[in-house]
């Protein structure tokens, strides 16, 4: 697919926080509905887009190590990602960055925006990290396919995300973002 010059990935700005809050709220609604359908009616209304936007405004404007990027299509924000360097080291002892959040609006998926946004994350993260990791629910088949096609691989590490009364498992996926000897 050909993308216009208006399709891009860039660092988020303070004025992007409202849209980021909306995107994350939509992603959370979907995840809860998939992972906890019996509780979705109870949990989904608790998602507060305004509170999420305020939280992302803080992340965008503070210097706490978190980097937030957005994907745009025709100058409209269609997705966002956030990552930060983590204290754990990779398997080879190198520095590791972790994707904390990554989503593309449902009606803009499978158009290259996610790939472009992920490449921007890699380009930024490899300035200070050797590896990039992300936690993924094995129940999220689309996300598993996306990261697998992008060169990430599942590791044995697991954790559980608590979604109210439901526990949603996550697996750690990792990829090397710096070639050996690359600085």
TrEMBL record:
Domain of life the protein comes from: Bacteria
Source organism of this protein record: Boudabousia marimammalium
Annotated coiled-coil segments of the chain: none
PROSITE patterns: GNAT (PS51186)
InterPro entries associated with the record: Acyl_CoA_acyltransferase, Bact_Acetyltransf, GNAT_dom
CDD domains reported for this sequence: NAT_SF
Gene3D superfamilies per the UniProt record, alphabetical: 3.40.630.30
Domain N-acetyltransferase: 30-175
Keyword Transferase among UniProt keywords: yes
Annotated protein name in UniProt: N-acetyltransferase domain-containing protein
One Pfam family cited in the UniProt record for this chain: Acetyltransf_1
Entry keyword set: Acyltransferase, Transferase
Gene Ontology molecular function terms on file: acyltransferase activity, transferring groups other than amino-acyl groups
